[in-house]
Amino acid sequence: MVRQALNSRRVDRIEAVVVGASAGGVNALMDILPSLRADYPLPVVTVLHVMRGRQNQLVEVFRQRMALRVEEAADKGELEPGTLYFAPADYHLSIEEGGVFSLSLEDPVHFARPAIDITMESAADVYGARLAGILLTGANQDGAAGLAAIGAAGGLTVVQDPAEAQVAVMPNEAIRKRPPDLVLPLRDIRELLLALPA
């Protein structure tokens, strides 16, 4: 089904993936990311809302469950294939020309820092049609504008089926702002990630 959906839409060669999530996001990410093999050829950048003042333990948690390399995005670090990156707690994460990370302490967006919108919008500027954006469960509208920017740049946009999401606000806001290419349950998003490098 997922391959048919991809074939029905012209998909340029995807070179990077950005995933955003908030409330319920850890469980959703656990459902879709551990299936990525050690030689997965794309960088996957994940932004998950983390409460201010709380240490981000996502890297350690996912390292224990994945064959793919898992790192925290570092300022001025280059995106590398075959790596899952997490945005650090309490920093906005942008992607600059040349595929380089940039961290900032600008004001929160939709009460969030890191904000999904900032990462997705900057990635859309750099990768255009070579970017896939995936938005999962969450309780506010962060990510809706970012995913719309990816769509406007010609990238592939995917939203978790709101009926399945632990919190449907974020998927519904994204669908309302700009209809995505695909609305999928987690099992199909997992299949999509595996199909993208083909």
Automatic annotation (TrEMBL):
Domain CheB-type methylesterase intervals: 17-198
InterPro entries the UniProt entry points to: CheB_C, Sig_transdc_resp-reg_Me-estase
Keywords: Chemotaxis, Hydrolase
Signal sequence, renumbered to the chain: none
Domain of life: Bacteria
Family matches, as SUPFAM superfamilies: Methylesterase CheB, C-terminal domain (SSF52738)
Residues annotated as catalytic: S22, H49, D142
Pfam families: CheB_methylest
Top-level enzyme category: hydrolase
Reaction(s) the record says it catalyses: [protein]-L-glutamate 5-O-methyl ester + H2O = L-glutamyl-[protein] + methanol + H(+)
EC number(s) stated in the UniProt entry for this protein: 3.1.1.61
Gene3D superfamilies (alphabetical): Methylesterase CheB, C-terminal domain
Name by which UniProt lists this protein: protein-glutamate methylesterase
Native source species: Pseudoduganella flava
Top-level taxonomy: Bacteria, Pseudomonadati, Pseudomonadota, Betaproteobacteria, Burkholderiales
